[in-house]
Protein 1
Amino acid sequence: MIKGGYTIGSGSLIWNFVWALLLVLALAYVAARLLKATGIGKKSPSQFIEQLDYLALGPKRGIAILQVVDKTLCVAISEHGIELLCELDGSAFAERLESLPSLQRGAAPLGQFAEELWQHLKNPKARSDGR
């Protein structure tokens, strides 16, 4: 029996479905990785604590810079717990953060196209070509 150009029970229909499913899963994976890399959607649920930066030093180990109300703290994070390393000068840290290109804050640089796209998304009325 033929329905819509395919024989019911045909393996071709199943393979088309499997390929389409794999394509959708691959695209979802790439989109999730890009969102994670750019930091889009990262918003702390806390009103008083914000993670400013994080450096992974191995599995389940890293160093984080946190803003807690008016203090900037550097902490070590491991599977054994969290330990305060030092308190940072908040103004010096803010100056350093402002000197970095926008895409390098919390994410790997993505290139000139991504930088221009990011600038356009932040300010859609400004154009890079001056028109």
Protein 2
Amino acid sequence: MKQKISLTDFAKSPVLGAHSLKSKAVARALDEGAESLPYSKVFTSFEFEDFMTQLTPKRFELLRMASKGRHSIADLALASHRNPSAVSRDVSKLSELGLVKVESVINQGHGRRKVVMPVASTISINVSIAAT
């Protein structure tokens, strides 16, 4: 028989406590009629043809590399045997499509660098071929 979770369990557990705080923040935003909810994900919709013209084979390769963790533009360029400026342009397009996130971080003793991160562990593409 499964045991029920009590309010005391939430108070004792850091994981359950954090979940409770997030849930309260979402409920508060709903009550206030906020335009966006905390801890929510943004989903972007494109016409399939437009999307496929933007997701070139080289960009798809960069997406696959970026899905394995945090990588700098220079690391992606080196791994893909491509020019860093071309990789940077392609990463910008992937970011516009909502497929990766780019963050500027401090590079020890050398200014800043851009780090590419996956936005999700899985990206699903659904296509409807019905005429509109």
Protein 3
Amino acid sequence: MATMPEDATRVYTSHEKPWLPVPMVPKGEAWIKVIIVDEERKCVVFKFRFSPDSELVPHTHECHAVAYTISGEWEYEGLTLPEGAVAYEPVHSTHTPSSKPGSELAVVLTSESDRFLINHMPDGTDIEFDLEFFKQMAAIETAEDLEKLVEQVQAQS
């Protein structure tokens, strides 16, 4: 008799995870909560919030990204993404996301390597967020700890 394969279905929730303020936001505020980091599949899932009148630094994807707008509206490069919209951002795409009314997103990043995002800072430096960064971020509970993690990544750049 053949045996059935183990069901690989998993359910993850973000209710117990804190919203952490994102450092390095040049205009307004943003928050993130990392839900899951799957090292085997090189996949990161997180929720993201923009405050009203916010803008992130430009960043380049070293991964595929799918972002679903849960509420509000956000935009980049002339594209407006209202509630219910799904954005696909390919590898090597560069953009500067912003939001006038504020918004909340669910984001899935998948990579063929350990590289995910390169943030292009106003001073000309680039700060990379790789799989290890997201893995460490998933374990963080406080804004202070996230700030320290980002400072460590900046020092390595």
